[in-house]
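Example for reference:
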Amino acid sequence: MKFSEFWLREWVNPTLNSAALSEQITMAGLKVDAIKSVADDFHGVVIGEIVNCYKDIHNTKVNLTKINIGNNKLLNIICDAINCREGMKVVVATTGIILPSSRYKIISTTIYGIVSEGILCSFGDLGINNDFSKIIELPINAPIGIDIRNYLQLDDKIIEISVTSNRGDALSILGIAREIAALNILSLNIPNIESVTVTTNETCAIFVDATIECPRYLCRIIKNINLKVLTPLWMQEKLRRSGIHSINPLVDITNYVLLELGQPMHVFDVDCIEGEIVVRMAQEDENFISLDGTQIKLNKDTLVLADQHKILAISGICGGKYSGIQDNTKNILIECAFFNPLAISGRARRYGLYTDASCRYEHGVDPELQYKAIERATQLLVDICGGKVGPIVNRTQENHLPKQITIILRHEKLNLLLGYRITEEQVTDILKRLGYEVAFSIGAWRVIVPSWRFDIQLEEDLIQEVARVYGYNNIPKIPLTTNLTMTQHCETNLSLNRVKNMLVDKGYQEAITYSFVDPKMQQLLYPEEKTLIILNPISHEMSAMRLSLLIGLLSAVVYNQKRQQRRVRLFESGLRFIVDSQSDLGVRQEFMLAGVLSGNRYKEHWDIQSQEVDFYDLKGDLESILDLTGKLEEISFCAEANPALHPGQSAAIYLSDERIGFIGVIHPELEGKLSLNGCTVVFELLWDKIIDRILPNACAISRFPANRRDIAIVVSEHIPAAQIIAECKKVCANQLVNINLFDVYRGKGVNKGKKSLAISLILQDTSRTLEEEEIAAIVNKCIEALQKQLHATLRN
């Protein structure tokens, strides 16, 4: 919101300069975003009067004028503005003046033999706006010879603030002035708003069907107004400095009252209204034509104002085309209402009709403000446009208006939360200054919240109010004291941070994705699983609770690939949500750890050929994680069907006989549907199944030599290397310190359906040097076991 500092000071004028005032507004919770001058620095430009104006005989587009600038001084000035005429009060820049628009000094100029001794200024010339087409027309009573900077108050500042969603009361000069008055212990200079004398008995028939959405609706007819008059310059300037362009007196007056008091209003052409007026809910797909001619189909939850044949306005948002004010409008209906914020919220965004009115109604308007606002607008309208004023038509349902809230504020609770004691008298004074009704008794205040503060609901809200007005800077900084106790740490629990750090060390980045996912994408990955659907989602693409962390991670991979990221490594930990009738609320939540690999195996390097990641890259990283549990020997990777994964490059992960997760390459058919580029490898683990770890046993390094023996065997193609290694470990007792697969061969010399595996055995004893006979015996045991269990043969 933008507003004029001078306008604010008409209501409350603290002894603070602009910078200090802005700082105070920010510390009160209304953040000041910017302060800028109304106009650039210039001096010597004065008010003059055109005493003579006629067309030049050489060029009829040029006016030759004589300008009275006071002190019996007349100037000859040539002007080509279309609105230049005799009798106007204008803004005159004489020779020697430097204007902001050009930064050049004005000099006398001879045109057609006539010397021009200055220029008549537009707002553009003064650097106030970009309108150079017309010269400034001042009120007829503007004093000649006065500096225009003083007359238009161009030393004013425009203050722009950000108002949080809970402070709708601060979206007006009145609301901001209340805050400044409370902070500086000053009284408000509220304009005198009296009831306007009724001069006609004409009214209109108003019915309110939607009393919950519109518990108060006021309106009145004003006849025979004059729309040919101009909006007073003082009002135009206040609107302009608030970021609103002047349109016509009616629109300007309602905008002025909106900024001044915070009450939105709307004006209709009475002669365009057919029959009775009703405030009701729209019918499904009912048509509405906006002021700019846009046709909108309304939902049935939209509040409207309608006559017998058409919708006149979307209530609280904008008016319609067929009841809007025209240049020839003579008779008007002025509306002022309280709409329930829930009835307005979201509708403007839905229809793309965000307005200042909808903003204020969504934040919440004071339900006691409507009488003052309609009288204030009527008063200004009659003063500017004239007209005969009808009585106010009032349709109010008191039982549907917001109820006054009473809150008990305990002194002990206030001191406890602030960590500082504020006296009873200070608290009472602060609350009263803010407009609360306060009564203190036995260590607590009974506080009645003012009608304009929709955001105050709890005792904690009042404590915040007291703290911000007392001044956060005035609360001393006292170090927190507490009794520290060491939390128990179980060494047999695997730390999630330890796993995260390992993945980061391996080049992964942690991702945090939404628990809400696209149901279509989830259905692709889990076609046979039930999904928990959200009734009121953020969007349709986020309407399902995730069955796996992979939905979010794969979306992140696609996002990065579209931005030319050729190497993506991500992991995430979090909850998944499984439909389970046996669980509380029918949902089982499980904590998961998941990861994804895509793109190049290594970072780009001149000495390394580009290679794409594969199943074994991720399997190696995953085994590093599982090794932290001390149970890697008990882990097995077993082929198992998964509709989301490649049937030949995927596996279920088992700890002993319990399934704890899976790993695999995304199915080729899904890659295209998910917009994935290239091989994408994923894993997911049930965290609770791997959290228990076996503590490592420390033992001395053997002083005796290690011996390596290699064997090459031929086995069936379907036998995994893990099974071969497991068989060797069974028969080698404690002398086998390491076993490793170092070569796989298929081709010449190996029958089809077979493969040759080369395995290294590292043998070592902790107490003595192994003899060659002992080593040979161990190797033979391995060969015999492999021959017996796996039908392996030694390769020639």
